[in-house]
Amino acid sequence: MGHVKSLKCLICGSEYQEDEVEYTCPKCGNEGLLEVEYDYGTIKTEFTKEYLKNNKNYSMWRYLPLLPINDASKIGPLQVGFTPLYDVPIIRKDLGVRNLFIKDEGRNPTASLKDRASAVVVVKAQEVGLNDITCASTGNAASSLAGATASVGLKSYIFVPKNAPKAKLTQLLVFGATVFAVNGTYDEAFDLSISATKEFGWYNRNTGFNPYTVEGKKTVALEIAEQLNFDVPDYIFVSVGDGNIISGVYKGFFDLLNLGFIDRMPKLIAVQAEGCSPVVDAVNGDGIIRPVIPNTIADSISVGIPRSGIMAVKYIKESGGFGIKVSDLEILNAIKYLGSKSGIFAEPAGSTSFAGYLKALNSGSIRKDDKVVVIITGNGLKDVDSAMRAVKEPIYVDPTIEDVKNKLKETK
Amino acid sequence: MGHVKSLKCLICGSEYQEDEVEYTCPKCGNEGLLEVEYDYGTIKTEFTKEYLKNNKNYSMWRYLPLLPINDASKIGPLQVGFTPLYDVPIIRKDLGVRNLFIKDEGRNPTASLKDRASAVVVVKAQEVGLNDITCASTGNAASSLAGATASVGLKSYIFVPKNAPKAKLTQLLVFGATVFAVNGTYDEAFDLSISATKEFGWYNRNTGFNPYTVEGKKTVALEIAEQLNFDVPDYIFVSVGDGNIISGVYKGFFDLLNLGFIDRMPKLIAVQAEGCSPVVDAVNGDGIIRPVIPNTIADSISVGIPRSGIMAVKYIKESGGFGIKVSDLEILNAIKYLGSKSGIFAEPAGSTSFAGYLKALNSGSIRKDDKVVVIITGNGLKDVDSAMRAVKEPIYVDPTIEDVKNKLKETK
């Protein structure tokens, strides 16, 4: 059995036992996101630095005592997490910074951070006896769910906006998901999947609706902390759509603070695209989330109604962080800069955090010697059409060395 | 300093010291591939099971004593290798087999096994004082080289056939490589890059020309062996283009045999597409490689003149293995089967090995209780257009639950 104490509504404070509630707070409706609370006292006796030192499981499951899992036999075989935290020497030199780290989440099984949430959800569904899981997604949550269900023999039913990038759709179909391409936005797909959950009795993985997605995602923070030997960074830059990932990052550090592994929280910096910035506007303004019509190249964070927005705003403010907006051009330039100076290929939503970092550095919001982690949430291979807009064409040559010499001269 | 004893020509047996030769045997020309020979006696004193047990480096560099590296300070930051070896429970159940394992090489930094070779080559270039590296490639070797050079601040000059999949071209350009899209085949691009090496003084990474690519690639075998606790599999299925990867797999097990870690070699099974099978034809026939005009969807193994062909044929025969040909349709079906029953998304050349495994199993060439490892060489995100040919379209719906119900009924 896991160490979950209760699920507590972020809005009204009502507490529930695990088996009393499925998704959001029954009193507050879909706004009433539930925080998963743990029995830290019990966890402390098991989860120690010695425990980690002797733990040879280099995946997100090395943090099992901190996860809401009651039946560990249902954990799937895909190796999720323990992605690299790079010290990016060429970028450091170029920018004149000494303490920059990049967490490459594109290295997960289906190439995004979302695999962490899906890995947990697949266990939770089985714990309540359900073998059919649905979700709405801009793409990554869906492909992670479809991959995770395929690996354990469950079924997935996915609602995506029909304009989702082709690579993400392809992943879904290869993983054998039943894919509904919705003639509408992500926000409409989201509502539709909730209706389908009620209609068909499927288990629902939706981000910011299912309380356990944040718990899966927090493992990225646990890893960052351990990879930095529990020396907490000053800032963590996170691309924000629904606000679920940044909430997970907060939760991971919050757990470690309560367990005495760290002595302070890092400041969380939310980065959004200028064309879709409800969370950043709320954080930097009056704290109120106001839905928008999204307009950005970064599909994974093109979320007009951020479902974990209230939670994200609360956590970002509590951490002492702030929000930054970047343009689509800055996002594309960040893909190119990051790729050509580190070998890390980010999708647009993945590089948004890095674009925000560059902006914060240039504007003086953070200092050159601050210790900073930038999380790259997804691999660029998931959206090569956008990446192509960031780069120049190749040099077309005939298969002769003379042509190579001539063309090389022209480009210099 | 590393433990390389000499480089020995596969054709004439001439031996050279490391600093006496750059690429192939000067006496035998481009056919004269050099085998890297090690001082196993010295390595044995350092590289032990105890050494591995205490080694917390979970990347290909945990095998440093077995690699041809003289200046370890030049190793790049990207975390290459230690990819998952899965026991794929759903596939095992479906096929009624008990000892199947899948090695997912799509989890490497640029999403293919080639990262292992590029990681070594980037060090070797710097050891001889060169900062410009060139290669010809069907795509993956190139993107791995471009990523590796970007991560350490070197330059890459890449020759690819102009019809290389878009995702691979995009990776190259994002990593800042100078990309020559050659109006010709991979084989023409290969020759062109050799000319360019002479013309411009660049270091050359070409597969089956640079003797160190096999050494990088052998780390996949070292990992498989360690992940199986040195209990050698009966068969290893490998997709074959140039023949360099399967040569690397042989070399890794050969090293371990000489060091006393294992007591026998696994049988190596080369899998090629029906439309491009010079290595398989040689292995199953008279041993002579005869160039072909390639015609297959599997671009990464679409190699008419296999540059490591002689080496591969020798090694496969010495292992007691054989060759299998599969159709493009079998390759596409294997992508879908693998994805939907394991959550592993393979590119066409990546799934070719698995298609060969299915064929061998169905034909009785191997038995259900044989211990088998299938290596998936690259991630399907690198070629989604091909994958789309393997799957059905999504179900297009309007954002109403009624439409979902109707469409779902129609598809059942």
List keywords for this structure.
6-stranded mixed beta sheet, homodimer, 4-stranded parallel beta sheet, globular, 412 residues
Quick recap of the structure?
The structure is a homodimer of 412-residue chains. Chain A is an alpha/beta fold.
Walkthrough of the structure:
The structure is a homodimer of 412-residue chains. The first copy, chain A, is of the alpha/beta class and 412 residues long. The first copy, chain A, has a domain at 85-111 and 213-388: Rossmann fold, CATH 3.40.50. Chain A is 40% helix and 16% strand. The first copy, chain A, contains 16 helices and 14 strands. In chain A, strands 4-5-13-10-11-12 form a six-stranded mixed beta sheet, with helices on both faces. A four-stranded parallel beta sheet of chain A has the order 8-7-6-9, sandwiched between helices. The first copy, chain A, has a three-stranded antiparallel beta sheet with strand order 2-1-3, with no helix packed on it. In chain A, helix 10 (244-258) links the parallel strand 10 (235-239) and strand 11 (267-273). In chain A, helix 11 (278-284) packs across helix 12. The longest helix of chain A is centred in the last third of the chain and has 16 residues, at 348-363. The first copy, chain A, is globular, with a radius of gyration of 21 Å. The relative contact order of chain A is 0.13. The mean pLDDT of chain A is 96. At the A-B interface, helix 3, helix 5, helix 6, strand 8 and helix 7 of A face helix 3, helix 5, helix 6, strand 8 and helix 7 of B. Strand 8 of chain A pairs parallel with strand 14 of chain B, so a sheet runs across the interface.
